Amino acid sequence: MQHYQRFGFARNAKPGTRQEQRSAGSADLNTLGQREKILELKSDIMAELSNIEQLIVDVMQSMGATKETSIKTADDIAKKCSRPKGLVTNSLITLTQKGLIKRVAREKVAGYYIVQK
Fold first, then answer.
1. Exposure string (b/e) for 25-56, b if CB count within 10 Å is 16 or more?
2. Which of 19, 50, 69, 100 could form a disulfide with 13 if both were Cys (CB 3.0 to 4.6 A apart)?
3. How far, in Å, CA of 10 to CA of 82, rounded?
4. Count of alpha carbons within 13 angstroms of residue 81, beta-carbon side
5. Where is this region: Disordered (predicted)?
6. What gap in Å lies between CA 95 and CA 1, rounded to an integer?
């Protein structure tokens, strides 16, 4: 069995195949009512933070990392909140994906600042 067959993809989509069913289902999501529901669910997910994520946001606010000109590194944040650097880095990545903080790539070390709260 080829990998494209195992996951339900066919080389040439034929009527009644899984690939055709997937594309038909995605067209239904573009209706206005369902799109609004999806956006509401995304905003609810963004509002929910774990304890470590909330701690990191609070520490970043206390450090003044609220603008692009005053960014802080993961090391700075980890030292201030007394948590392991790996835990802080993973939480920073999650917060970046949620859109609450912004990552700025610099020469050697990336910096982070709060976009919104």
1. eeeeeeeeeeeeeeeeeeeeeeeebeebbebb
2. 19
3. 51
4. 28
5. 1-29
6. 39
User: Is residue 102 in some structural domain?
Assistant: yes
Quote the tokens at residue 11: 């080389």
| Segments forming the whole domain that contains residue 89 | 51-114
Distance from C-alpha of 19 to C-alpha of 13, rounded to nearest angstrom: 6
pLDDT tens digits for range 65-113: 888 888 999 999 999 999 999 999 999 999 999 888 999 998 889 999 9
Indicate the number of domains in the chain. 2
pLDDT for 9 equals 53
